[in-house]
Amino acid sequence: MTLLPGRAAQLQQMPLFGGLTESALGVLLDDSREIAVPAGAFFFREGDPGESLYVLDAGEVELTKTTQSGPVVLARLQAGDCFGEMAVIDLSPRSASAQALLATRALELSMNGLHALYQQDVEQFALVQMNMARELSRRLRKLGDRLRG
């Protein structure tokens, strides 16, 4: 995917891409694709293999986890949020399901793109990893606050 003028600045405003250079964004986008998911459809389901992460461009996505008492909503995500990063970090199956609540557009970033960035610029790769960790930490804190009531 070609990095369109203005797209780099737009992406750099999103938590996942904060601090990345245009050339690093270009490497990530070379192996990415834009996808549209209709309302009610799933990006992925809990237990699916995880080989990519998503950055929501438009719409709303709900993350749910299956428990003994039924599905639990973990988060509702909006434009700029990323999801699916846990499976990319720990190379494990999806730990939750991601369903579009509205018609959505998202950028799908593959593990191949992340690997290419690692090979070309390890410092920028480390920054992406740190941004993913921050996002996961924010989500865990929010979930912890909800559980405390």
Number of strands: 8
Mean model confidence by pLDDT: 89
Uncertain spans:
none
**Percentage of β-strand residues:** 25-35%
Determine the structural class based on helices, strands and strand pairing.
alpha+beta
Specify the overall morphology: globular
Numbering strands along the chain, what is their spatial order in the largest sheet?
Answer: 1-8-3-6
Q: Mind telling me the C-alpha Rg?
A: 15 Å
Word description of this protein:
With 149 residues, the chain is α+β, with helices and mostly antiparallel strands. It has five helices and eight strands. Strand 4 and strand 5 (70-78) form a beta hairpin. Helix 2 crosses helix 4 (111-120) and helix 4 packs across helix 5. The radius of gyration is 15 Å and the shape is globular.
Task: Present the secondary structure layout.
Blueprint: H1 7-12, H2 22-30, E1 32-37, E2 42-44, E3 52-58, E4 60-67, E5 70-78, E6 82-83, H3 85-90, E7 97-100, E8 104-110, H4 111-120, H5 122-148
Helix pairs in contact: 2-4, 4-5
Task: Summarize this structure as a short list of keywords or feature phrases.
149 residues, alpha+beta, four-stranded antiparallel β-sheet, 8 strands
